[in-house]
TrEMBL record, chain A:
The keyword DNA damage does not apply. The keyword Iron-sulfur applies. This is 4Fe-4S ferredoxin. Transmembrane segments: none annotated. It comes from Galbibacter marinus. Residues 10-38, 50-81, 83-112 form the 4Fe-4S ferredoxin-type domain. Pfam families: Fer4_11, Fer4_4. CDD domains: DMSOR_beta_like. One of its GO terms (molecular function) is metal ion binding.
UniProtKB/TrEMBL annotation, chain B:
InterPro entries: NarG-like_sf (IPR036197). This is Major facilitator superfamily transporter. Keywords: Membrane, Transmembrane, Transmembrane helix. The chain crosses the membrane at residues 12-29, 41-59, 117-142, 162-189, 210-228, 240-258.
Length: 189, 351
């Protein structure tokens, strides 16, 4: 990787309950140059038959990424800042293992290009000290990129949580979600 | 040295030695006990045998990784099934489309495909010419009493002839010139992308992305130098041109198994992945319990559960299901619902 100016004081905070489904993040995401102008963020209805609630999902950049482990082509790598990068284009064989194994449902398979793509935290921006595109445009701050002190000031009744339990599997991530105070892990039944 | 050997992967080492020995045997057989072998190419031959050794070693280590091993075994199992002929035909078509023409790259970017296609075609053409020559499989002769007809000998058998000075002779003798031109144009197109694309600038590295392009251009330019020398300089700089070209080519061959060029061999796995999907579809699709839609083949989901457990990830749930039974959208919704419930339990949806 080239020399970077990645600010490790800055972190990503997601609060799905604040998502209003405006899709501004999707439009902004497509501006990210590391995505090749494809939008990588996911905005979808949680359960359309019961509610209009939408949810937003960026890559959570797992500490031990399942996607990278199940990749048969060694195409996914994690850098020294913990950013899990989109598939190496020369290696990815388009098998979809990562798409189906990611516990957060993040990677996308570009079928005709035989390529997996995913959010890499706008590495062209974050590597030079800027904020990811989605976080700069989110009007409800469901997506926020800043310091822990800033988020603590803005959300006094919440805490950032970066530990998840999917069945028997604990997954720790670089990206946080905002949870009620006193919570240290989100259990996904 | 002993410690270094001890760290080597034994199974891969054996396979690599077998591959290298087989290459030498094929050289001996194809060149008729070296009588058709050109000793001037000995350095290239040693480089090629080393490349075969390295590629076989790395390929074998790579195949030992659980997900790669699974794809390899499944691909072989599905190919050599009762659907052998349709799957073979499908694989041949895909080989032409995705390996020879690399059409999948066009869907990433047309210019990128064009650059890569020129690069890859130039390299494949150059390999097709130089490997049989280096191995002594092909050589050319003149027959007594006729000094205008050139005979191409394949494994010591006459395989064709052409008149010296004919257009065919011009095309054939300049085969490596054409490939050098293709490679150079392709490499320049790929370099331009790396200068102008913000995403590539942020993520590229010298050794993985620039060095391979520099090396390919160096090989092409020094190769063109040999041609330039005997065409216009009467061979005055032959020694220099030949040595610099040999150095760049041997560097390429030695580096082939370790650097970015290994993707040439990894790419073949794409054929296996496609076959895996086709057979999986025939066997039946997995339906997401949340979206109620088919999202992947059931074979894929079942295999992935096993592979991820082998790798130390267990997404089994208390009710006997697995988190991987959900489609990507289903997983995102499950997470959002869990988050909503946690907020509800706390008595405040926002905080």
């Amino acid at each position: 990787m080239p020399e970077t100016n990645y600010d490790q004081e800055m972190a990503f905070f997601v609060d799905m309950q604040r998502c209003i489904g405006c899709h501004a993040c999707e439009m902004a995401c497509a501006e990210c140059e590391t995505n090749g102008q494809e939008s990588m963020i996911h905005v979808n209805y949680v359960d359309r038959s019961k509610s209009t609630q939408t949810t937003v999902q960026v890559c959570m950049h797992c500490e031990d990424p399942t996607c990278a482990n199940v990749c048969p082509a060694d195409a996914i790598h994690q850098d020294e800042f913990g950013v899990v990068h989109s598939a190496n284009t020369s290696r990815c064989i388009g098998c979809s293992n990562c798409v189906l194994a990611c516990p957060f449902g993040v990677p996308k398979k570009m079928e005709e290009a035989e390529l997996m793509m995913k959010c890499n935290m706008c590495y062209d921006r974050t590597s030079v000290g800027k904020k990811p595109m989605c976080a700069t445009v989110c009007p409800s701050q469901a997506l926020f990129f800043g310091t822990k002190e800033e988020i603590a000031r803005m959300r006094p009744d919440s805490v950032p949580v970066n530990s998840f339990l999917f069945g028997k599997q604990e997954v720790n991530t670089k990206v946080n979600i905002m949870m009620p105070k006193g919570t240290d892990q989100l259990l996904i039944p | 040295m002993y410690r270094l050997i001890k760290t080597l992967n034994r199974r891969a080492l054996i396979k690599a030695i077998v591959a290298a020995v087989l290459t030498v045997i094929f050289v001996l057989m194809g060149s008729r006990n070296l009588q058709n072998f050109d000793p001037a190419l000995i350095a290239y031959l040693i480089g090629t045998v080393f490349a075969v050794f390295g590629i076989a070693y790395r390929y074998s280590v790579w195949l030992q990784r659980p997900p790669t091993r699974l794809y390899w075994r499944r691909s072989m199992q599905f190919l050599f099934s009762r659907y052998f002929f349709p799957y073979l035909w499908r694989s041949i078509k895909l080989f032409v489309r995705n390996i020879f023409f690399q059409r999948f790259i066009a869907f990433r970017s047309r210019r990128r495909w064009f650059g890569h296609f020129l690069l890859a075609t130039g390299c494949m053409l150059a390999f097709a010419i130089t490997i049989p020559l280096t191995f002594g499989w092909i050589h050319f002769i003149l027959k007594p009493g006729d000094d205008t007809t050139y005979y191409a000998m394949l494994f010591g058998f006459e395989a064709g002839s052409f008149q010296l000075g004919s257009p065919l002779a011009f095309i054939a003798f300049h085969g490596l010139v054409w490939s050098s031109v293709l490679v150079t144009i392709g490499a320049v197109i790929m370099m331009k992308r790396r200068f102008t694309d913000g995403g590539l600038i942020a993520t590229q590295s010298f050794e993985n992305d620039w060095l391979p392009l520099f090396l390919l251009i160096a090989i092409s330019v020094t190769g063109l130098g040999i041609s330039y020398d005997y065409t216009f300089l009467e061979g005055k700089t032959y020694q220099f041109m030949a040595v610099t070209h040999a150095i760049t080519v041997i560097l390429f061959l030695v580096w082939l198994p370790f650097g970015k060029f290994f993707h040439i061999f990894q790419r073949l796995a794409q054929l296996g992945a496609t076959l895996y999907k086709a057979e999986g579809k025939r066997r039946g699709m997995a339906t997401c319990p949340h979206t109620k839609e088919d999202f992947a083949t059931q074979t894929h989901i079942d295999d992935l559960k096993k592979v991820s457990k082998t790798l130390g990830f267990n997404y089994d749930k208390e009710d006997g299901t697995n988190h991987m039974d959900l489609s990507p959208e289903g997983k995102r919704s499950a997470l959002a619902n869990a988050h909503l419930n946690a907020r509800k339990e706390a008595g405040k949806l926002f905080g």
